[in-house]
Specification:
- The protein is an all-alpha fold.
- The chain has one domain: Four Helix Bundle (Hemerythrin (Met), subunit A) (Up-down Bundle), CATH 1.20.120.
- 75% of the residues lie in helices and 0% in strands.
- α2 packs antiparallel against α3, α2 packs antiparallel against α7 and α3 packs antiparallel against α4.
- The two termini are 31 Å apart.
- Keywords: Cytoplasmic vesicle, Electron transport, Heme, Iron, Membrane, Metal-binding, Translocase, Transmembrane, Transmembrane helix, Transport.
- This is Transmembrane ascorbate-dependent reductase CYB561.
């Protein structure tokens, strides 16, 4: 609108992007659940159905919940930074726990079925993503939630934390795409080219995963959507750091 600052006008679109990301994320989880539940025999913790817990847990944990953890600093713009940090860490922890369940499920299934572990590109990329995710979470706890590092060191690490956060989301989506393709080729190789219902559903899941990652990445990288600085929090931070370390911290 005429006379309205560009940033204020842009902020009006933020809820729509966030809502769109949640619709896409929930759709990914639901479609994964339907795929494994309807086409692949349901869910169990033994037998052939044990594997089906793996894709559902990884999409829920390392894509949807992780993507939401990345978004919290854009969604909760006016809450205290400490509260947002705690929510950010808790969502990461939930994603971690659910992902561990998914990894245990696939390793147990492979062991029971006498299938080799970690032989495919999907498994290599997925494990690398998981290891880096754990490392990112631990470093985030140490640098920001329970800060032991100096303000200068935190300011140096913050851009790396943001960059690897988005990179890990992209790696998670990419690993899922590799897993979808691998599962389809193992399960319906002969009929895949005939546009069977299972193949179309899985392909749709892949496209939705990409769309979810793109929307989250766009929201996080758009400058207009950044969390505004809180003068009171900055003043308290400066005062504390001046008293404790004799230095003035830079704002993250």
């Amino acid at each position: 609108m005429e006379g309205m600052p560009l940033s204020m006008g842009s902020l009006r679109t933020l809820p729509w992007y966030v809502a769109g990301s949640q619709v896409l994320g929930v759709a990914c989880v639901v479609i994964t659940g339907v795929w494994m539940g309807h086409y692949r025999g349901g869910y169990a913790w033994d037998g052939s159905a044990q594997f089906n817990n793996h894709p559902l847990c990884m999409v829920l944990g390392l894509v949807f919940l992780y993507g939401d953890a990345v978004l919290v600093y854009r969604v909760f713009r006016n809450e205290t930074k400490r509260s947002v940090k705690i929510l950010h860490a808790l969502l990461h922890m939930m994603a971690l726990v659910i992902s561990i369940v998914g990894l245990v499920a696939v390793f147990d299934f492979h062991s029971s079925a006498k299938i080799s572990h970690m032989y495919s590109l999907h498994s290599w990329c997925g494990m690398l993503t998981f290891v880096l995710f754990v490392l990112q979470w631990l470093l985030g706890l140490g640098f920001f939630l329970f800060p032991w590092a100096s303000a200068q060191l935190r300011s140096w690490y913050l851009p790396l934390h943001v960059f690897f956060g988005l990179l890990l989301l992209a790696m998670s989506v990419g690993s899922c795409l590799l897993g979808i393709t691998e599962k389809l080729l193992f399960s319906i190789m002969e009929s895949y080219i005939m546009f069977t219902g299972e193949g179309v559903l899985a392909n749709t899941l892949g496209l939705l995963l990409v769309c979810f990652g793109v929307v989250v990445g766009y929201v996080v990288t758009r400058e207009d959507f950044r969390r505004p600085p809180n003068p009171e929090e900055e003043a308290l931070s400066v005062h504390f750091k001046t008293l404790s370390e004799g230095e003035i911290p830079s704002s993250p």
